[in-house]
Amino acid sequence: MTERNHEAEHGSGSRTPDAWLGLGSNMGRRARMLAEALSALEAHEGLELGAASSVYETDPVGVTDQPAFLNMVARFRCTLTPPGLLEAVRAVEAKLGRVRTMRWGPRTIDVDVLLIGGLRVQTDELTVPHPELTRRQFVLVPLAEIAPELSLPDGRTAAELADPGGEAVRRLGTLDELLRRERR
């Protein structure tokens, strides 16, 4: 997406769009990884944390012979271009030891760009809205927690699509609660 298209979508004086990010970890100290990812993202110029969901434990998708994931969703005020946001996300993943070896395999941290305001982006590197957004309960349930009325690409809301009991999505508590338990 070019900067010109970005301005056409938002106008030159429009408010800063929200970037919705899905975070997951299933290796090491999972809650600590989520906290470090949020902190690193918030420290990045052009990103300001607005809200974060509780943490949910979920069964792996795709490659099922691996540990369960901790997942959450966060909303950031974002002044970055879509490629700039992807660069920031990948830098945070690399900083936290993410190595891309197997699709859907175990990972220290995974940060997915779910939505950026109302933008639609289709490049070799980035697709927004995330193509699996409306099919992943491990994203929909935490998204519905912090933005139940958020309209998704198909016109339904996060709350309409979320099914907290349907796909082994277990709420564990807030990130702070999990970090306190992890220290014990």
Would you write up a description of this structure?
The chain is 32% helix and 24% strand. The protein has helices at residues 3-10, 30-43, 82-95, 137-146, 158-161, 175-183; strands at 18-25, 47-52, 55-58, 69-78, 110-116, 121-122, 127-128, 169-173. Strands 1, 2, 3, 4, 5 and 8 form a 6-stranded antiparallel β-sheet that branches. Strands 6-7 form a two-stranded antiparallel sheet. β6 and β7 (127-128) form a beta hairpin. α2 crosses α6 (175-183). It is globular, with a radius of gyration of 16 Å. The termini are far apart.
CATH superfamily: 7,8-Dihydro-6-hydroxymethylpterin-pyrophosphokinase HPPK
What's the number of structural domains?
A: 1
What's the overall average pLDDT, rounded?
Answer: 86
The CATH topology turns out to be: Alpha-Beta Plaits
Shape: globular
Please give the share of residues in helix: 25-40%
Structural classification: alpha+beta
CATH A-level architecture = 2-Layer Sandwich
Biggest beta sheet summary: 6 strands, antiparallel
> In whole angstroms, how far apart are the ends?
47 Å
Secondary structure tally: strands: 8
Beta-strand percent range: 15-25%
Counting DSSP H or I runs of 4 or more residues, the number of helices is 6
Order of helices and strands: HEHEEEHEEEHHEH
Give a quick rundown of the structure.
This protein is α+β, with helices and mostly antiparallel strands.
Set down the secondary structure blueprint.
Elements: H1 3-10, E1 18-25, H2 30-43, E2 47-52, E3 55-58, E4 69-78, H3 82-95, E5 110-116, E6 121-122, E7 127-128, H4 137-146, H5 158-161, E8 169-173, H6 175-183
Antiparallel strand pairs: 1-4, 1-5, 2-4, 3-4, 3-8, 6-7
